[in-house]
């Protein structure tokens, strides 16, 4: 993997000090920031760094970039690594604003995203339908858009799930959802590949599963590098749970998340304790019909790093309970195929470092859904880190077009990627 230079995250704004974790400095200048950590060169060493409660934002050759408190940065230094504070993105906002800075206005706030969804459904009523699968802690709708021909019918078609913005600061993932909404409806009837796939698949797009966190991250027109949701944690002033450590498969099992509510990778007091995770998980479980999960494949979009990742994240082993050699090889083959189309690096999630309670481990381990994480643009902080300018949106969302269409194509039988469709997907002869 490449060594990268990273733009730093902004500490929490003074106006929102009530959201600072317990034990954090009152001065926002002393709040969480980003650090270049020179030294970690293996997955095991990177896992040690993550177990301080810091979030690993970027992995390079012999280095990582983390979002961490000052205390965590010192703890990482005590592991024998060199820790260097990085500058943060410019505060470009004004009081009272709840939107992106003007130069990034092509990004969609939650209200603007809702308008896109409503317009898509209104313009393509035979192809797209909006469902509300729950509400966030603050009461915002958790939206799912179903796309398929004759959308009002529950067809017996392979279903594919796309989830976006589990982590609040990863706004480019919402733009990926907007791109998919438009591509799969506007190109229908004109693009033969899109048309065939929409005719033969049921596609679910959840364009923002952490709307509270996303809105909080841009409150006052400045970026805060907020990752979690915004629910309070009982008995502490710390706010928020890391949604992608809160899923109910090997939750908290393996040192791949934090039990401290103040930490950016806090897994919550119990699996599915975050309302957003619980309700999205309930939606996925609702797609089980006659004992069979209808969703066969999924992508969870994140930023950044330009990676295609597959399970498991909670163990370094390729195979483990619930993951046979054929399961692993099919994930790897399909992941590599998608990476060949978008130029990302394909690898097992734990090749980076151990995580537990992630959506991808849950989707596969609990539901049997072939699942992938896409870490989108940029490859490193030099491209803007979590906050690339809005001019990159068209290129970096369309870059994933062929990868998404590939997943949709193989959704009828992901084992086709290793030539074992007869073994796994075809009914035996009478």
Automatic annotation (TrEMBL):
GO MF terms listed in the record are: metallocarboxypeptidase activity; zinc ion binding
Question: Which lineage is the organism of this entry classified under, starting from the top rank?
Answer: Bacteria, Bacillati, Actinomycetota, Actinomycetes, Streptosporangiales
E.C. number(s) listed in UniProt: 3.4.17.18
Gene Ontology, cellular component aspect: extracellular space
Q: What reactions does this protein catalyze?
A: Releases a C-terminal residue, which may be hydrophobic or positively charged
Query: Which GO biological-process labels does this protein carry?
Result: proteolysis
The protein's UniProt keywords, in alphabetical order, are: Carboxypeptidase, Hydrolase, Metal-binding, Metalloprotease, Protease, Signal, Zinc
This protein's cofactor list reads: Zn(2+)
List the InterPro entries. Answer: CARBOXYPEPT_ZN_1 (IPR057246), Carboxypeptidase_T (IPR033810), Peptidase_M14 (IPR000834)
Name assigned to this protein: Zinc carboxypeptidase
Kindly indicate where the leader peptide sits in this chain: 1-24
Q: Which family does it belong to?
A: Belongs to the peptidase M14 family.
Which species is this UniProt entry from? Answer: Nocardiopsis composta
Keyword Phosphoprotein assigned to the entry: answer is no
Task: State the protein's purpose.
Answer: Carboxypeptidase that possesses the specificities of both mammalian Cpase A and B. Thus shows broad substrate specificity, being able to cleave Cbz-Gly-Leu, Cbz-Gly-Val, Cbz-Gly-Phe, Cbz-Gly-Lys and Bz-Gly-Arg in vitro.
Active-site positions on this chain:
375 (proton donor/acceptor)
Q: What is the enzyme's class at the highest EC level?
A: hydrolase
Q: Which residues form the Peptidase M14 domain?
A: 106-411
